[in-house]
């Protein structure tokens, strides 16, 4: 797994990622990511709300949110924050290089979705 935003290469695919903490419990975070994403994920131009491809209680894999990058995958590793401490999500975008823009542009977009839109939805009572 890609820790804290480093760009990692593996054969012809690469990945970027990040981590965010939430006040909401793990079950609520999982529900929001898998079932309720249409309520907080507002697609930017060239994006679509990704489909959930695989999901269990601690791991979610989604299709690419970018229409022109159908082979990309967005993964979430979910964990409890411990002793009533909410929850944590570590996300990883795995993509085929080269990207049409700087990988930091993708990292920024996903961090904004998770750190702002998702957080407002789950921690704000959405």
Describe the structure.
With 126 residues, the chain is α+β, with helices and mostly antiparallel strands. It has one domain: 2-Layer Sandwich (Alpha-D-Glucose-1,6-Bisphosphate, Chain A, domain 4), CATH 3.30.530.20. It has three helices and six strands. It has a six-stranded antiparallel β-sheet with strand order 1-2-6-5-4-3. A hairpin with a 6-residue loop joins strand 5 and strand 6.
Name its key features:
126 residues, alpha+beta, Alpha-D-Glucose-1,6-Bisphosphate, Chain A, domain 4, six-stranded antiparallel sheet, 31% strand, disordered N terminus
Query: Compute the gyration radius: what is it?
Result: 14 Å
Characterize the quaternary organization of these chains. Answer: single chain
Q: Could you say which structural class the secondary elements and strand pairing correspond to? A: alpha+beta
- The percentage of residues in β strands lies in 25-35%
Secondary-structure element order, as H and E? EEHHEEEEH
Number of domains: 1
The average pLDDT score comes to: 88
Find the CATH topology. Answer: Alpha-D-Glucose-1,6-Bisphosphate, Chain A, domain 4
Tally of individual helices: 3
Low-confidence sequence ranges = 1-10
Helix/strand layout:
Blueprint: E1 8-10, E2 13-22, H1 26-34, H2 37-40, E3 52-55, E4 59-62, E5 73-80, E6 87-96, H3 103-123
Antiparallel strand pairs: 1-2, 2-6, 3-4, 4-5, 5-6
What's the short story on this structure?
This protein is α+β, with helices and mostly antiparallel strands and 126 residues long. It has helices at 26-34, 37-40, 103-123; strands at 8-10, 13-22, 52-55, 59-62, 73-80, 87-96.
């Amino acid at each position: 797994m890609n820790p804290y935003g480093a760009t990692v290469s593996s054969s012809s695919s690469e990945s970027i990622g990040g981590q965010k903490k939430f006040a909401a419990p793990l079950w609520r975070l999982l529900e929001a990511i898998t079932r309720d994403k249409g309520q907080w994920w507002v697609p930017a131009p060239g994006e679509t709300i990704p489909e959930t491809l695989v999901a269990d209680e601690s791991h979610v894999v989604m299709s690419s949110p970018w229409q022109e990058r159908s082979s990309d995958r967005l993964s979430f590793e979910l964990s409890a924050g411990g002793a009533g401490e909410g929850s944590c999500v570590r996300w990883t975008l795995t993509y085929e290089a080269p990207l049409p823009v700087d990988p930091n542009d993708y990292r920024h977009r996903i961090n904004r979705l998770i750190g702002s839109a998702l957080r407002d939805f789950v921690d704000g009572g959405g």
